[in-house]
Amino acid sequence: MSTGFDWSAFLDVAGGVGAFLAGLGLFIAMAALARTLRRLDKTLDGVDEQIAALGKPVSETLTHVGGIADTADRTLARLSGVVGALEQIAASLSSTAKLTHDALSPAIVNVGATIGGISAGLRRLIRGDKETGENA
């Protein structure tokens, strides 16, 4: 028997214990990671349920908004038609007013000239003839 210390046996045991501790640490880390991922999975399942619950009302709201937009588009199309008709009416009224002005302007000028002539004739009749100076 030898009374000396066998380093090779000690290193073999120390390497085995080190490998065991490293494996145990890795096992503990993976167990903690598994718990975290389980909690994350439950959280994501809850989020999926909430999104699924919101999906139907959001879809109905978007459909309703789309209907409102379609109604607004139809109303604007009708209004543009009405505006076009009103523009045509305004153009017709403007043309009618111009034609009326063109037709009545000479007549009004003629009436004014006739009234001027009559008043001048009445003045001569009442005041007398300007050339002779006699009263009528």
Write structural notes for this entry:
By secondary structure, the chain is mainly alpha-helical. The protein has 1 helix and no strands. The model has no long low-confidence stretch (mean pLDDT 86).
Number of strands: 0
Listing every helix as H and every strand as E from the N terminus to the C terminus, the arrangement reads H
Tally of helical segments: 1
Cα end-to-end separation: 182 Å
The whole-angstrom Rg is 55 Å
* Overall average pLDDT: 86
Low-confidence segments:
none
Can you summarize the main beta sheet?
Answer: none
Could you estimate the helical fraction of the residues in percent? over 70%
Helix vs. strand class: mainly alpha
Please state the overall shape, judged from the principal axes of the Cα atoms: rod-shaped
* Percent of residues in β-strands: under 5%
Secondary-structure blueprint of this entry?
Blueprint: H1 7-127
Keywords:
89% helix; mainly alpha; rod-shaped; 136 residues
